[in-house]
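Technical note accompanying the year-one report. For the benefit of new consortium partners, we illustrate the data format agreed upon in the data management plan: each record pairs a sequence with a structure-token string. No post-processing was applied to the example shown here.
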Amino acid sequence: MEVYRQVDGQLPFLREPIDGERFLAAPPQTGTWVVFTEFNFFEKRTQLRESMTTQWKYPAMLWHKSYSDSNGYAGSARHEETIVADTSWFHLLIKQLKKGLPTKTWYYYVYEWYEMSFYIYAVPHGATVTFCMDTPLQFGKDLVHTLNARNQPMPKNKLAFFQSAILGELLKMYDHSVWTIRDVVRDLEKERDLSGATRQKHLDFVQMHDLARHIIHTCEIIAVACDSITELLAGHGVDNGGRCKCLLGATDTIRAACPHNEIAFTLGLLRNLGRRAEALSARLKNEINLGFNLVVQHDSASMKTIAVVTLAFLPATFVSTIFSMSFFSLSFDDVTGRQEWNVSNSFWIYWVLAVPLTILTLLCWTYGQRTEGFRLMPTFRSKYLKP
């Protein structure tokens, strides 16, 4: 567990050498805190879970496996008891593909799941604690750097501020995830030239469908993330148009700096990333369909070759059938007693008939193919080559 603290709203956030279990026993009275931990940290610590539920107002239902394994959720609440506290919780997923195409050592695409949970506990005019669970190491570094890079004082609504800061960092991860997939899809598109013919001798449809599976997951988790962020905004009185209602009567400067507006802007960018992911799915389907058509075209050409070879031997077979193979005979030598093959003196008749018939048949087939191509050319020009 890593704990960072900002004292009296003064930058920067500094790491606190503090015992995790003692810190979680009860919420602090003052200060702004950011805690990086793992969800499994609470799995075998029943007392800590009870403390989080009673002291920190963490929803007890979120400890259940069905919530930790879900593809996303979000919620917020205000607890008006001895101490008034605002809380917010959300769970988001990101699937990150490793760059590059699969290799011989590993057949499928390499990827990693980030299943992150966040909980914010904020007391008006008191302490604010943000829990980031199961986040990657780089996320924690970037979040602390972003918080320390601010030149503006901490806004009064710290809960919304930390929501905005976290979602801003998550947006970068979603963007990296989608663009990594885009690079992989683009590499597949570059495997063919402008004529549409693939440079690969063998298209691996299994790998392409494996990539399609990852894109489907990405589209799903981005859509769920958009719904979850919408729930967060709805809990703060933000309408469908992204207009914040918590600062009615405030000046334009204060309204522009409202964290809810930043969250709404992040939501819009995330929706755009979702559209890009859907476009990548369509582009990959296009490549799969093209590859399938190329394979079918190749198989059709192979069958045509077999048909032409069969056609070449058909006239000779027909002639030999007519003559019943009477050009050859098996006889015994009276002197040696051995069997010998005898070829008729009229064997030339077979070649005189078979060779011209074979040539004539192939010429007729070639003429038919050319005639069909010339017949389709005007239709192609009128349809696709309009001035």
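Partners are asked to follow this layout when depositing records. The chain has two domains: 2-297, 325-384.
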